[in-house]
Amino acid sequence: MSRASDSNSTSAANVATYPMTAPITCSVFVGTSIDGFIARRDGSLDWLPPDGGEEHGYTAFIAAVDAIVMGRGTFETVLKFHRWPFQKPVIVLTTRECNALLPAGACVEFMSGAPRDVVARLA
């Protein structure tokens, strides 16, 4: 594992580069409850089915993207998983410094700013 750190900009461990030559396409894949919530008030995701549940096209979606953008809360939840689930670069949106231990081989970059500005940096 390596330790990540940031300065609320674009420094990180295993920083990826994004040589994009075509317009960027952004897609969203979100698991929500029937009443439209992503997590409980305390941030818990315990309502989601455990591994082995129906995946609703997640595997095909992840296979089709070049990078994954997530918020800091999601990133901290994913770090608690048994294994790092991503083989693609991960961009974490955060305004706070992060000193998390990254799993070996994880390619994570921390960025701050509005999602529109982050997408412009990736394009």
Name a few traits of the molecule:
single chain; 123 residues; alpha/beta; 3-stranded parallel β-sheet; two-stranded antiparallel sheet; 3 helices
Description:
The protein is α/β, with parallel strands linked by helices. It has a domain at 67-122. The protein has helices at residues 58-64, 72-78, 115-122; strands at 2-3, 68-71, 90-93, 101-102, 108-111. It has a three-stranded parallel β-sheet. The protein starts with a strand and ends with a helix.
Summarize this structure briefly:
With 123 residues, this protein is of the alpha/beta class. The protein is built from three helices and five strands.
Given helix and strand content, the structural type is alpha/beta
Q: H/E series, N to C? A: EHEHEEEH
Distance between the termini: 29 Å
Shape: globular
Mean pLDDT: 77
Share of residues in helices? 10-25%
Topology:
Elements: E1 2-3, H1 58-64, E2 68-71, H2 72-78, E3 90-93, E4 101-102, E5 108-111, H3 115-122
Parallel strand pairs: 2-3, 3-5
Antiparallel strand pairs: 1-4
